[in-house]
């Protein structure tokens, strides 16, 4: 296992574009800290973002994992390129000639996916912990380490998404076309969701029972947007005559199970394609 992972990480690190994208991704994650310095002045109204509670424990786990998940496309490019380069440079065929089985090859790719997801999760944990200890109004241990299921959901979300990217990379072989397919698939899912929401079930909750099983939508559902949880948003809603937001922000076991199922499907399909394909 260690040998397989070492081979994959060396391939990525020796590729200049992949190295730059990976480093850029983690640098951008640290830039979440810059949000704390944002100050908005409108007339006599002053708004300091760090004072609005976004870095309070345990809210910070929700906020930072949601923001960090948006940046996952940087590593998506690395994952897709990693697979496309195997075909372009002939390293896939060479690895098989050298004695690596197709199962070991897929295993090495999935291990890389797990490492990317795991390191990203640990990194966002450390960034969030530092920001929370610096700006949070609540520093009791029980509060600090509550709602950490968002970190687990973040790890599962990245693992599922990167497994999807791996499958696309094997299916299409070309990184540009694979990334284009990812973009098109996102549009297709949004069209399906729109049809189900506004045409098939416009006045019921049945739409959620169907759309939650779409691959990208299921990953998106793991961490719901956190912005409407902020007290400032709720105060505005109350001021304009709205009602308190009753949205469900929890991480649910069935949402995790759906993404895990898709992850298993993508990895199994990747192995099946590689096994049947004439290299």
Question: What attributes characterize this protein structure?
Answer:
279 residues; mainly alpha; two-stranded antiparallel ribbon; 71% helix
User: β content, as a range?
Assistant: under 5%
Helix content: over 70%
Average pLDDT over all residues: 82
Q: Based on Cα principal axes, name the global outline.
A: globular
Radius of gyration: 21 Å
Distance between the termini: 24 Å
The biggest sheet amounts to:
2 strands, antiparallel
Low-confidence runs of at least 5 consecutive residues: none
Spatial sequence of strands, sheet with the most strands: 1-2
Total DSSP E strands:
2
Q: Topology as H/E string?
A: HHEEHHHHHHHHHHH
| SS summary, helix count | 13
Secondary-structure-derived class: mainly alpha
């Amino acid at each position: 296992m260690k040998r397989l992972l070492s081979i994959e990480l060396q391939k990525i690190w020796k590729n200049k574009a992949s190295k730059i994208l990976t480093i850029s991704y983690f640098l951008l994650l640290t830039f979440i800290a810059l949000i704390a310095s944002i100050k908005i002045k409108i007339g006599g109204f002053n708004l300091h973002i760090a004072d609005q509670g976004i870095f309070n424990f345990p809210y910070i786990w929700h906020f930072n994992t949601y923001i960090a998940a948006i940046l996952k496309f940087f590593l998506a490019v690395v994952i897709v390129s990693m697979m496309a380069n195997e075909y372009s440079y002939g390293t896939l065929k060479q690895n098989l000639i050298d004695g690596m089985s197709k199962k070991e090859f897929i295993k090495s790719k999935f291990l890389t996916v797990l490492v990317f997801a795991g390191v990203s999760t640990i990194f966002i944990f450390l960034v969030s912990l530092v920001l929370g200890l610096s700006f949070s109004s609540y520093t009791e241990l029980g509060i600090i380490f509550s709602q950490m299921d968002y970190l687990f959901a973040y790890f599962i979300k990245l693992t599922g998404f990167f497994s999807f990217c791996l499958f696309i990379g094997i299916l299409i072989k070309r990184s540009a076309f694979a990334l284009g397919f990812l973009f098109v698939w996102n549009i297709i899912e949004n069209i399906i969701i729109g049809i189900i929401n506004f045409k098939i079930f416009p006045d019921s909750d049945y739409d959620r029972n169907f759309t939650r099983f779409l691959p990208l939508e299921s990953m998106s559902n793991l961490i719901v947007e956190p912005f409407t949880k902020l007290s400032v948003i709720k105060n505005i809603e109350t001021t304009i005559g709205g009602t308190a937001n009753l949205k469900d922000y929890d991480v649910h076991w069935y949402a995790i199970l759906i993404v895990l199922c898709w992850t298993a499907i993508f990895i199994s399909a990747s192995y099946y394609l590689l096994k049947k394909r004439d290299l």
